[in-house]
Amino acid sequence: MTHIAIISASVGAGHDGAAAELGRRLTAAGYRVDTHDLVELLPKPFGSLLSRGYQRQLQSAPWLWHATASTFDRAVPAAAAARATRTGDRRILDVLRADTAAVVSTYPLASQMLGRLRRSGQLAAPVVTYLTDPYVHRTWIADGVDATLAVHAATATQARRLGARNVRVVAPAVAPGFRPAAGADEVRLARRAFRLPPTGPLALIVAGSLGLGRPERTATDVLGTGLATPVVACGRYHPLRRRLAALPGPVPLGWVDDMPTLMRAVDVVIHNAGGLTSLEALAAGLPTLTYRPLAGHGRANAATLEQAGIIPWVRDVEQLDDALRAALGRPDRRSAHRAAPDPVAAIVGLIDRPSATREHVPARWPGPRPRGAGTRLARRPPTRSHR
Questions:
Q1: Between 3.30.70.1450, 3.30.420.40, 3.40.50.10490, 3.40.50.2000, what CATH number should domain 184-328 receive?
Q2: pTM here?
């Protein structure tokens, strides 16, 4: 059986979510898939800094995360970040099987490492980057990567401007359960499953698996409009759920395993990051708003989605009333995703293609961005296999 490897990173849930769905589809297509966590492949201090530093900055000092993300979105710092990951190259090669037919990255630093291994000749299998964000941060683009997959046309344009090769627009890697509700009965059953109010509009507020941002203020602002009851998905951040439970009005939820059913229970989604949840909401046919986006990548994603006419960015509480009213006034639920090739087809196409003979040239960082736009290890890191 042909093997394909996916390298994600347990930094939030969006990268892992995309990796899981790609793995499910590839498995269904007859491939054996091994999924690896970059946080575990990197030396421990670096991996811990990657996962915990992200969360702590956004929770305690969002201005610092914004400054960090902005700094590494420039050519010289981005190249430095790529070089800093060299210590993990050997570990990636150790966990990849000799018969691996392709490697897929759903995290920017993984793309940097895989691209470097590919162009140096240490990795023979083709490498694919699946972009999980609408905005293309410079660290996503690495010379040596054979194909870059984007969900939005605007994202594909940004990737090409940064020098990505073989950029393709594909369908989002969201589970098939994310679809519009079939009718009032299905909505009623979904609300009952989560013990939600049986009547009246519901606004689902999502803050990622870490409960980042200011979801409490968002819930208060939604209540202030009088237009909908806020339902807040708190993820794994239990203190947020406890704080919301003490407030009159909001309905706080912990970690949700069945997000497709929850989305069929609500009338509008309000997000703050622009990642996987926004794609799921659009697939479910739900009107979606960006409000109080996270610093750094959240704001960049919000700008990209708004400029492309995909999701409006509500910038203050004064605009929220009109935006919610317009969203709730939409008469029907239809998936907002246009027909596009399955990302699995693009990945498999690289496997079936004869081995590339072109030589990968050293990375050449483009100019300023336009405004608006060895020895085997004794202990192998844990591997998640899709069977």
A1: 3.40.50.2000
A2: 0.82
